[in-house]
């Protein structure tokens, strides 16, 4: 796999950090997650299959020394904490990169390392709001609607940070020196939305209020429609040639349903038409045609669809949980899903990792006894 041999030290955090580590792990990197001792979480980390965990008390000098030893043997640190937290522990980039000059220090935060908001708490919705993108999302005459926590946490955060790490690794291959990555979820979300920013002067796209434009549910030919069996179909017939095929399969003409006129009237017509057939019936009509019409599948149905099944897009676990397989596909060094490997308990591999750092049995016992590290319980396969 392309990242085989790369050693990652991931400080335990919420969604974006674990997702970044997951991507790197599934494309070949070895990931050690640094959990806190006595860690208690509301939402379990479901992105850590195949990682190892050491539980460290970083408020203790001996715990800090262990972390430094780990960092000396690693290529990348994923730091999800607010600016200054690691510096207070004397574990910031300046401290660690003096010793390990090849170290890549990835700092994944909401607002970034500098700026008036840098020290503030926030979540995906806050970062998305500040990026400008949230203002574009939502129906007409309704408030902006966040698309779960997908854009900032995972797209502009974890994925963008993983991309930055790969770039830094490529650069290190040239000069043998690491660097600091400032991965802000505001910056990353904004950059993810580059096309939306760069098309704002194209009046055909954005001349109307939110929810009244071509791609934001304002047009009848780019929306979802309920079917007879209470499911939905997606319609994305933007180009005239695709729209013509769409109308043909509905038995309509351009005169009866003009593409760039009477959006609301046309939408009402389509709502009635789509309720006349079940989703499977509409799929039988549109599958294989350039009409840009496809079903809306839920998270259980995706594995049964013929296209996803043939491409092996998803894996179903023993508990019927459906998870996506790594993407993109590389012809000779593609990623490999870790979902069949277990999620580690916090500190599950503490003794194992300390042994690799040349601590003996008595030293490890003393560290556990004094609360500097914690040896977690092993758990059954998830």
Sum up the structure in keywords.
382 residues, alpha/beta, 7-stranded mixed β-sheet, 3-stranded antiparallel β-sheet, 15 helices, 12 strands, 14% strand, elongated
Describe the structure.
- The chain has 15 helices and 12 strands.
- It has 382 residues and is α/β, with parallel strands linked by helices.
- The longest helix is centred in the middle third of the chain and has 26 residues, at 150-175.
- The two termini are 24 Å apart.
- The model has no long low-confidence stretch (mean pLDDT 95).
Quick recap:
This protein is α/β, with parallel strands linked by helices. The protein has helices at residues 16-26, 61-72, 85-88, 93-97, 124-131, 150-175, 185-192, 194-198, 203-206, 240-250, 263-274, 279-286, 306-311, 350-356, 361-369; strands spanning 7-11, 30-36, 52-56, 76-79, 104-109, 180-184, 222-226, 232-236, 293-295, 314-316, 322-324, 373-374. A 7-stranded mixed beta sheet has the order 6-5-4-1-2-3-12, sandwiched between helices.
Write the topology of this structure.
Layout: E1 7-11, H1 16-26, E2 30-36, E3 52-56, H2 61-72, E4 76-79, H3 85-88, H4 93-97, E5 104-109, H5 124-131, H6 150-175, E6 180-184, H7 185-192, H8 194-198, H9 203-206, E7 222-226, E8 232-236, H10 240-250, H11 263-274, H12 279-286, E9 293-295, H13 306-311, E10 314-316, E11 322-324, H14 350-356, H15 361-369, E12 373-374
Parallel strand pairs: 1-2, 1-4, 2-3, 4-5, 5-6
Antiparallel strand pairs: 3-12, 7-8, 8-9, 10-11
Helix pairs in contact: 1-6, 5-6, 5-7, 6-7
């Amino acid at each position: 796999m392309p990242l085989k041999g790369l050693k990652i030290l991931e400080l335990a955090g919420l969604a974006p950090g674990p997702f970044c580590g997951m991507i790197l792990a599934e494309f070949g990197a070895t990931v050690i997650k640094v959990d806190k001792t006595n860690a208690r979480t509301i939402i379990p980390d479901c992105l850590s299959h195949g990682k190892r965990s050491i539980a460290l008390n970083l408020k203790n000098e001996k715990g800090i020394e262990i972390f430094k030893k780990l960092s000396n043997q690693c290529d990348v640190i994923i730091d999800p904490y607010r600016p200054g937290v690691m510096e207070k522990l004397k574990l910031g980039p300046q401290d660690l990169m003096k010793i390990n000059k090849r170290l890549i220090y990835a700092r994944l935060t909401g607002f970034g390392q500098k700026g008036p908001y840098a020290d503030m708490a926030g979540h995906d919705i806050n970062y998305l709001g500040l990026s400008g993108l949230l203002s574009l999302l939502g129906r007409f005459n309704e408030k902006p609607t966040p698309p779960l926590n997908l854009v900032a946490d995972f797209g502009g955060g974890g994925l963008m940070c993983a991309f930055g790490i790969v770039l830094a690794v490529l650069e290190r291959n040239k000069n043998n020196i690491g660097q600091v990555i400032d991965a802000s979820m505001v910056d990353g979300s904004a950059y993810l939305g580059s096309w939306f920013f760069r098309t704002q002067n194209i009046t055909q796209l954005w001349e109307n209020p939110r929810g009244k434009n071509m791609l934001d549910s304002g047009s009848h030919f780019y929306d979802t429609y309920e079917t007879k069996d209470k499911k939905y179909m997606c319609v994305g017939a933007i180009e005239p040639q695709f729209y013509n095929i769409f109308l043909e399969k509905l038995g309509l003409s351009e005169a009866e349903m003009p593409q760039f006129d009477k959006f609301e009237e046309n939408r009402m017509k389509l709502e009635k038409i789509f309720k006349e057939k079940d989703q499977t019936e509409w799929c039988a009509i549109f599958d294989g045609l350039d009409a840009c019409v496809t079903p809306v599948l839920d998270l259980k149905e995706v594995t049964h669809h013929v296209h996803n099944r043939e491409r092996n897009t998803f894996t179903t676990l023993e508990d019927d949980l459906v998870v996506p397989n790594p993407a993109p596909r590389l012809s000779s060094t593609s990623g490999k899903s870790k979902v069949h490997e277990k999620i580690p308990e916090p500190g599950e591999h503490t003794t194992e990792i300390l042994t690799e750092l040349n601590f003996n049995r008595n030293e490890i016992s003393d560290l556990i006894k004094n609360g500097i590290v914690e040896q977690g319980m092993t758990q059954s396969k998830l």
